[in-house]
Amino acid sequence: MSEQAFKDVQVLRGVPASEFIETMGFFAVSLTANCTTCHGDASAGSWEHYADNTPLKQAARRMVVMMNSINQANFGGKREVTCYTCHRGDRTPRVTPTIADVYNSTFNPIEPDQLLPPASTEPSADQILDKYIQALGGAQQLAKLTSFAIKGTSQAYAELAYPFELYAKAPNQLTTITHTEAGDRTTVYDGRNGWVAMPTDDKPIPLLPLIQGDLIGAKLDATICFPTAIKQALAQWRVSTPITVNDKDVEVVQGTADGGRTPVNLYFDSKTGLLVRQVRYTDTKVGLSATQIDYDDYRDVAGVKMPFKWTLSWLDGQTVYTATQIQPNVSIDTAKFAKPAPPKPANP
Q: CATH number of the domain that 62 lies in?
């Protein structure tokens, strides 16, 4: 739990450490802040100073208590007000509307985490998903792909490019390993459980289990590697109004996970039928944390179209993966999908 993993936790007690870290990301994007904004300059390069009791940390605690009180008193405890409701990327919430707000912005009444309004026209969700399977090569060809290994480069925001490896085995096992000078970054989903191992330069906790929305997301990523079971991966499928993504007309399909509590949006190219974007959410104490994956550069591999580039974005980070080699139907050691050990520094 958060109070066991970190020091000086006062308000966000009793939550898993991984959820606590994602909550920090929600704070950051809501205020366009970074770690040192609240934890102080001394925290740069020193996890110990993250426990310093700064004025902004005290203010954040008061805001969380206020937010919870508003939701409890006015909405029966349902989360309708979050940090982002008022701050919208500003340290100080704006209280006066501007003319630019009226004339220079596009009004969108649908929050992305809400269930999308169903489209009244065809095609149906089943038809769009069937077209996706056919666009990849067809169900029979996909069934012949039982595993694959990828090598390539990974580039996070404001970082150098690092080599990465990806291992996938049907029906739903997936491991990604990025080799950095600080140590390996490893994400594993073994078909039931998942973990993230990070160098201590990246995270104060070197090994975290995936839970809740993060675990659902890992399972979905593994399923998309072998997508013939995509219809069973989510429930309550519906189709929304078509939109444009990166200058492409796309069909929007939404399913839900976790008993209907977590929506997952999938965006398919209207012409090719290929998946171009996935957006999913993880619940935290202060709001939903979004994760987005954009898929690009599809090429034929053993008769199956596979993306050679994908961009993983979350509230406080982004990584672009570019494959240089994809080997289909390779033998993969089962140890690749075992719980990873905390990483050792690459250059001790």
A: 1.10.468.10
Q: How far out from the chain centre does Cα 116 lie?
A: 19
Q: Under 8 Å CB-to-CB from 76, ≥6 apart: which residues?
A: none
Give yes or no for a contact between 154 and 321, defined as CB atoms under 8 angstroms apart: yes
Is 109 within a domain? no
| DSSP code for 285 | S
What are 295-342's pLDDT values in tens digits? 999 999 999 999 999 999 988 889 999 999 999 999 999 999 999 998
Range of the domain at 310: 125-337
State the Cα–Cα distance between residues 169 and 97, nearest whole angstrom: 53
What residues does 147 pair with on adjacent strands? 169
User: Of the ranges 85-99, 124-138, 190-204, which is most confident?
Assistant: 124-138
Q: How far apart are CA 143 and CA 171, in angstroms?
A: 10
Model pTM greater than 0.85?
Answer: no
Which amino acid is it at 338?
A
281 and 142 assigned to the same domain? yes
Other C-beta atoms closer than 10 Å to the C-beta of 55 total: 9
149 and 74 assigned to the same domain? no
**If phi over 0 gives left and psi between -120 and 50 gives alpha, with beta otherwise, what is residue 183?**
left
Distances (CA, A) of 99 to 86, 92, 103, 184: 18, 19, 6, 49
Amino acid at 337: F
Dihedral of alpha carbons 50, 52, 55, 59, sign: positive
- Kindly tell me if the per-residue pLDDT of 57 is higher than 90: no
139 and 63, same domain (yes or no) = no
Calculate mean pLDDT across residues 244-269: 90
Q: Is the pLDDT of residue 258 over 90?
A: no
Q: How confident is the model at residue 227 (pLDDT cuts 50, 70, 90)?
A: very high
Average pLDDT, the chain: 88
Residue in the structure block whose two tokens are 């489209």: 119
